[in-house]
Amino acid sequence: MSLRPLLPLLATALLAGCAGSATRPVAAPDGTRADVAILETTDVHANVLSWDYFKAKADSSVGYERTATLIRRAREEFPNSFLFDSGDTIQGTVLADYQALVAPVGCDQELAIYKAMDAVGYDGGTAGNHEFNYGLPFLSQVTGTPMDIDGTRTPRCAGPHFPLVLANVFDAQSGQPIFKPWTMVTRTIEAYTPDGSRIRVPLKVAMIGFTPPPILQWDRRNLQGKVTVSGVVEAAQRYMPQIEAQHPDLVVAILHGGLNTAPYTPNMENGGWYLAGVPGIDVLLLGHSHTEFPGPRYEGMAEVDARRGFVRGKPAVMGGFFGKDLGVIKLALERTGGRWTIDRADTHSEVRPICPAKDQCVPADPAIAPLVAQAHRATVAYVNTPIGQSTLRLSSYFADEGDMSALAVVNAAQRDYVQRELPKLHPELAGIPVLAAAAAFRTGFGGPDDYTDVPPGPLTLRSAADLYFYPNTLAAVKADGAGVKAWLEKSAARFNRIDPAKTGEQALINTHVPGFNFDQIQGDLAYVIDVGKPVGQRIVSLTYRGKPVTPAQPFIVATNNYRASGGGNFPGLGGGNTVLASQDGVREIVAAWLKRTGTLDRADLPGTSWRFAVLQTRGPVTFTAASGKQAIAAADGVPGIRQLRDHGDGTATYAIDLKGAVPPKVDGQPHHHRRHAGH
Predict the structure, then answer these.
(1) Closest CA to 589 of 453, 475, 442
(2) Does the pLDDT at position 11 exceed 60?
(3) How many domains does the chain have?
(4) Pairing of the two strands 148-149 and 182-192
(5) CATH number, domain at 132?
(6) CB neighbours of 500 closer than 8 A, spacing ≥ 6?
(7) Is 43 inside any structural domain?
(8) What distance in Å separates the CA atoms of residue 651 and residue 626, rounded to the nearest whole number?
(9) What span, in angstroms and rounded, lies between the C-alpha atoms of 532 and 129?
(10) pTM
(11) Residue 183, Cβ neighbours under 10 Å: how many?
């Protein structure tokens, strides 16, 4: 059975037939009960199909086409249901970039992800931070939402067939919200009176949406001077009186954000805990954190039930990412005093995976793939465009442990670009040394296939996309030696502090610090990270061309617009010291550099810039990575890594020897590429 856009209406019609002669909604007496499911997708990131564009193969562990199957099954289970999306929907795959940047969709065309979602049928959604990555004109077009941009009103174009609400982003000139801040949907539901009679009654559900306030930092290039942003609590307090004046039965807050109990600020990235405390909000839908709620990550958080799915007494859910899961809140409603109330004892949340076990994934809904087949084929053809050759394997399996093979390509391309372009804008900066910072975006967070892995042989645009996952643009910042050291100290928070005296296993990686915030800096720089020391005191050696870096020593650091504008909250970064803000994407810069290089070999890349300090540990220091990759670490000059045990799911536990392994040769002397010297 395939999903169709009219499925929700058909479900309502079936309910009418089941109710016999009760063809019109009636008033519900006190004591009437109804079960209502709130279904949520979030952080789908344009993973429409179960396909890995980087590896050019099917991947059944991801894909909205499988989430659609879970939605269909949930609707069969819960005749009364509503479906919402919590954002980060239109960006995140090569398919998304193709439709936004390579062959942009026309005003009369709908994005592939929205075609798929419309085939399922949604009641509403909100915008995540990544919705803004392609700029406001594109966002206006593909969401079908006219906006005033730079004094011009955009036309109304094809968009999703469901409302998008966003209460905390406003036009900088008019002060008006760029999307509807909230809206109402009324559905006829099936309920049961105290005597067991089945009746049909109306249920009015208000939805209000929120995006992370730091978008003004993260997408400064697209948003500065065009929009303003408020905190999520302030936005809720602003619009809740309007919502309550319409007497909804339920208010659903759709937040592209997670949970954080740190002191509240209007710029808080994950304000869900505080939003749950706003009076009048009944249900909380979460996102952004790329995890599941309820789930073990939130065990022990104040006023949070991480097993049944409550935040400060409000039912809540966060339904995973990449189309891997469906969030489900089963609401038990009871009519009391002439209004619906939530019976918390009979209410719970859960996250339903598309793959309950390895190699046991639900089938794809057959209605989805035909809708996006043309865009998919065009994307596959595009990413297979040849750009060169490589004699090296470029991977991120052990990027946290010192394998810079993949990052070195990004840093070489970024550094080359800045060395060529910066003197044109700022001749006075021409003599300042240029460094480059990059992080491994794919370090296994999404599973055993979530790593960069470009084998030796032909290079294509797909290779460049694998090496650089996000559609960031290049930026360069002016820094000094103290700032570079602070940058590296912040990055080194990626590691847990290791106690040499412990005899048991100690985890090397601090999973609360994402891999994309572990910047590794290259460019005749060498440094040592001591994980035996506390955060902020780990860079125990820092040299440039073999000499100690002094606090006032000037540098230019090539990075991306996200980091330069304050993304990740790195010290000294926030846009004020940006000296180059390119319109060119880092991925395109990497592709162009590889094309100019022709055949890539080790002489084209800067050497490894860092190593761990020797630490005499009594027990093993461990980390998790894709299984069976030990030989790659050895081949890439990262010694002392051995696999301890295979988990049977594509991952394994490894140990790294910090006490006796010969450290990799670190590049601390002047480095000259075999090519590009004249660029």
Answers:
(1) 475
(2) no
(3) 2
(4) unpaired
(5) 3.60.21.10
(6) 532, 615, 616, 617, 618
(7) no
(8) 4
(9) 36
(10) 0.83
(11) 19
Task: Rounding to the nearest 10 degrees, give the CA dihedral for residues 492, 498, 504, 510.
Answer: -30
Q: What is the pLDDT of residues 526-562, one digit of tens each?
A: 999 999 999 999 999 999 999 999 999 999 999 999 8
CB 160 within 8 A of CB 114: yes
Q: Letter for the amino acid at 502?
A: K
Same-domain check for residues 303 and 439: no
Q: Which two tokens stand for residue 414?
A: 């970024």
Sequence-ordered strand ranges (E) for 50-158: 51-52, 57-58, 81-85, 124-125, 148-149, 152-153
Evaluated on CA atoms 341, 236, 179, 68, the torsion sign reads negative
Same domain, 442 and 365: no
Q: Which tokens is 409 given? A: 């390509």
Look-up of token digits 């109306």: 202
Do the beta carbons of residue 452 and residue 442 sit within 8 Å?
Answer: yes
Q: How many CB atoms lie within 10 A of CB 57?
A: 9
Q: Nearest CA to 80 among 182, 1, 185? A: 185
Pairing of strands 520-522, 610-612: unpaired
Distance, CA of 323 to CA of 455 (rounded, Å): 27
Report pLDDT for 446.
Answer: 86
Query: pLDDT tens, 171-224?
Result: 999 999 999 999 999 999 999 999 999 999 999 999 999 999 999 988 888 999
Identify the residue whose tokens are 């209406």: 9
Region of 312 on the Ramachandran plot (φ > 0 left; ψ -120 to 50 alpha; else beta): left
**Residue 169 burial (CB count, 10 A):** 26
Distance in angstroms (rounded) separating the CA atoms of residues 273 and 278: 10
Name the one residue in this structure whose structure tokens are 């890594």.
641
Nearest-angstrom CA–CA distance, 319 and 87: 11
Q: Give the helix ranges, DSSP H, for 309-367.
A: none
Q: Are 177 and 320 in the same domain? A: yes
Could you tell me which of 492, 511, 489 has the C-alpha nearest to residue 572?
489
Rounded Cα distance between 374 and 116, Å, is: 13
Residue recorded with tokens 């040394």: 433
Is the pLDDT assigned to residue 667 strictly greater than 70?
no
Render pLDDT for 324-370 as a digit per residue (tens, 0 to 9): 999 999 999 999 999 999 999 999 999 999 999 888 999 999 999 99
DSSP-based three-state secondary structure for 587: helix
406 in the same domain as 265 = no
CB atoms within 10 A of CB 431: 8
Regarding whether 436 and 345 lie in a shared domain, the answer is no
What distance in Å separates the CA atoms of residue 107 and residue 305, rounded to the nearest whole number? Answer: 45
Same domain, 348 and 395: no
Instruction: Verify that 553 and 464 share a domain, yes or no.
Output: yes
The DSSP 8-state label assigned to residue 24 in this structure reads S
SS3 track for 599-617: EECHHHCCCCCEEECCCCC
- The answer to whether 60 touches 50, Cβ cutoff 8 Å, is yes
Q: Other CB atoms closer than 10 Å to residue 648's CB: what's the count?
A: 9
153 in a domain, yes or no?
Answer: yes
Look at residue 679 and tell me whether its pLDDT is greater than 80.
no
CATH number, domain at 418?
3.90.780.10
Q: Within this chain, do residues 128 and 259 fall inside the same structural domain, yes or no?
A: yes
Residues found in the chain: 679
Peptide bond into 25 cis (omega under 30): no
Domain assignment of residue 425, given as a range: 386-656
